[in-house]
Structure formats: C-alpha cells, structure tokens
Amino acid sequence: MQGIIYEEPTVWLFLLVTVIMGGWAAWMTGRAVAMTWRPAFQLVLYILVLGLFVRFIHFALFQATLLTLHYYIIDTIVLMAFGFAGWRYNRARQMTTQYRWLYERTGPFSWKPREGG
C-alpha cells in the first residue's frame, strides 16, 4: 500500500495525520456546516481546502511531497468521508431534536417521518 495510498515510510504517519488529525478536523467541519444549516456543497469546498492543509502537514513534518495530485486526492477522499459523516450525524440529530413532533431517529445518520406527523 505504501506508494499507492500513502507516501511516508510507515502507515502510522498516514493514519496519524490524515485519518486521526485530518478526520477529526473534517468531522468538526461537517458538524459546523450542519449546525449552521448550510448545504452540503459548502462542506465540499471546505474539505477541499482542508485537504491542502493536511498535505502541508505531511510536507512540513514528514518531508512528503507538497504538490502532488495523487496524494491530495487520496487525503481529500478520506477527509470527505469523515466530513460528510459528521455533517449527516449532526443533521440527523438536529432534525430529530428541533422537529421531534415530525421526525424520529432511525440510526446515527438517518431519520424518518413520525406516524402521526
């Protein structure tokens, strides 16, 4: 997988920077977009910028390549997954708490209309 998914000498650096640190930032970005009732396309723009910052952390701390489209796309895909999960989780929570007479939660990421609503 080294060279395909990540360019660092060990997978632990990829997991630390992209998945843990970047994933947390992407989740919080998705949460912020959901909490302010903004549409999902704005989240895409924010995550694209966040992908640049994650690439910079790889470059600055671990001497990875800064301007590489391949690894930028991989990092951004991982960040999009975390960002949209955070957005959907918080949107489901919003819909079921603010409109509890209309919707009920069916899972961590989904809701459905109530029977009597």
Task: Characterise the protein shown here.
This protein is mainly α and 117 residues long. The chain is built from 3 helices and 2 strands. The chain has helices at 11-35, 40-62, 69-98, and strands at 103-107, 110-113. Strands 1-2 form a two-stranded antiparallel sheet. The mean pLDDT is 93.
Short key terms for the protein model shown above:
mainly alpha; 2 strands; 117 residues; elongated
Average predicted local confidence, pLDDT? 93
- Oligomer kind: single chain
Strand order of the largest sheet: 1-2
Beta-strand segment tally: 2
Count the DSSP helices: 3
What proportion of the residues form beta strands (DSSP E)? 5-15%
| Terminal Cα span | 50 Å
Helical content, roughly?
55-70%
How would you briefly describe this protein structure?
With 117 residues, the protein is mainly alpha-helical. 67% of the residues lie in helices and 8% in strands.
Topology:
Layout: H1 11-35, H2 40-62, H3 69-98, E1 103-107, E2 110-113
Helix pairs in contact: 1-2, 1-3, 2-3
